Amino acid sequence: MFGKGRQEHSEEEKTRHVGVVFKNLTVKGMGLGAALQPTNGDIFLGLPRLFKNLLTKGPKAAMGKPPVRNLLTNFTGSVKPGEMLLVLGAPGAGCSTFLKVLGNQRFGYEGIEGEVTYGGTDAKKMAKDFRGEVLYNPEDDLHYATLSVKNTLSFALKTKTPGKESRNEGESRKEYVREFLRIVTKLFWIEHTLGTKVGDEFVRGVSGGEKKRVSIAEAMITKASVQAWDNSTRGLDASTALEYVQSIRSMTNMANVSTAVALYQAGESLFDLFDKVILIDQGECLYFGPTDTAKSYFQDLGFLCPNRWTTADFLTSVSDCVSSWTVEREALVLEQDRFAVKCGRQFRKSQQSIEEQHEEQDASSSKDSSTSRRHIVEQTPHDECLEQDTAPFAVQRSFVS
């Protein structure tokens, strides 16, 4: 991982970079508050509540299951090795659901449709045989509070120390752990915290930014090929959040992994560190593509970016523009749902037009030479998704009006 000589000698570095592709991804689940959590009082209140629902809602609604809705609708895209994906969206838009499915955390949902492949391997096989290759980090960092930073990272290194074929010649396991511990702590600026406890709400330990960097160092030690970070800058100030994202950028470049990060407040300096961005609203994908063309895409649709607004704030405010159109609460929610669906459909149409253009180009090139036709036939679906151009298709300004 560190140094060209070690990378050339290691067998792991040649085979672990897989990337992730999601195609027509749809996630179904119960909405917030759709089901009641049973308690001890249900022993006495269960029967009266059933009769009440029969009289007020009818037998079908009283005996039926809680309503199920789409948390994500028809998502398609890819994250190559060495790329960082920024996940933007308001709270409740579906960012955490997207990261959980991308991190292969599929429990708790009513149904997951579509394909999510990691280097051509489906999610079931990854969960069964290669569970350590996919990592999901929630908002709250989970560590043993009474362990020091050195003990936490040393334990992770001991469990992930490779065999002799992936270490330098004559290097023992202890030397490998000692060398990697020195490099990782210096890379993420936590070498002064080795003797300090990690801590939590009850045990005094390192600061919030240092704890975040401990999590990044631990993730780098695990050598997971696909990593998902959910709102990890919560509670950090602007400078500490910038250092945190810079650490993830360094880990992504050095380990050549695929990283997806959800941020609710991202400054321009943070936004420039990412390669791709996805905008989610009401479970719809409003945009997926390079960060360089995200702002111009919505400006071509007719949206105006005020002065001194960051690109991330402008993208997030796109779904909030309907708040000035309606006043009543119910009409506002209905208008937001319609707006998200309309934007999602328009973006999918632009993607379909790009795919049709690529198919026409492939068809014309296949007629010119037989070698190119043989290459297209032998190409896997995973490679096709990774190689397709993700630049969005600009549509007319009359879409918003």
Task: Describe the protein.
The protein is α/β, with parallel strands linked by helices. It has a domain at 4-20 and 76-107 and 117-321: P-loop containing nucleotide triphosphate hydrolases (Rossmann fold, 3-Layer(aba) Sandwich), CATH 3.40.50. Helix content is 44%, strand content 16%. It has 15 helices and ten strands. It has helices spanning 4-9, 42-56, 59-63, 95-102, 123-129, 149-159, 173-187, 208-222, 238-255, 268-271, 294-300, 311-318, 329-368, 370-378, 381-387; strands at 20-30, 68-79, 84-88, 111-118, 121-122, 134-137, 226-230, 258-262, 276-281, 284-290. Strands 6-7-8-3-9-10 form a six-stranded mixed sheet. Strands 2-1-4-5 form a four-stranded antiparallel sheet. Strand 4 and strand 5 form a beta hairpin. Helix 6 (149-159) packs parallel to helix 8, helix 8 runs parallel beside helix 9 and helix 13 packs across helix 14 (370-378). The chain is globular, with a radius of gyration of 24 Å. The N and C termini lie far apart (52 Å). Residues 322-335 and 370-401 have low confidence and may be disordered.
